[in-house]
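Troubleshooting: if your tokenizer reports a length mismatch, compare your output against this known-good record of 163 residues.
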Amino acid sequence: MSSSAPSTGNISVRRKYFPPADASVPGIVVQTTVLPGNSVSSSTGNSSASGKTYMFFAAACTGAEEAEMERAVEGGRVARDWGCAMPAGGAGSSRSILTRPQTRESTGTALFRSPGGGSDAAVGMACRLATRLQSQVFVALDVESRLVVLAEKRIVASLKEEE
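Known-good structure output:
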């Protein structure tokens, strides 16, 4: 089940619930916030679009109802494991997202990590997503360490559904 929160200007916010594959793991809700790129005029008068900025928040969730998803997102701990990354070459580079990806890795940093509760998983995930999307990416995780790989798969699945 997915839902969209009201958009502010061109900022879009979407939530998607992914049910558990089996009873041993909880479901995961992914909230995706997308800020559009800015149109920048060059000295030649041509305008070019800079890259979008993505914010992904993944949290364990007990149900697909809107109230459960909201409780997981609003009551979640964004700062448990929070990272940011930029693609090599910077966001909004002139090359098309459809062309072959750059071979250089993205650069990322941890914005915040809870003592004893976080890991650097969000940084690595943000770097991989920044390379894939060629945009600045923020990733916040509020899932157990055993669910990090599953959370990344859910984020990618939510992106594919939007294409």
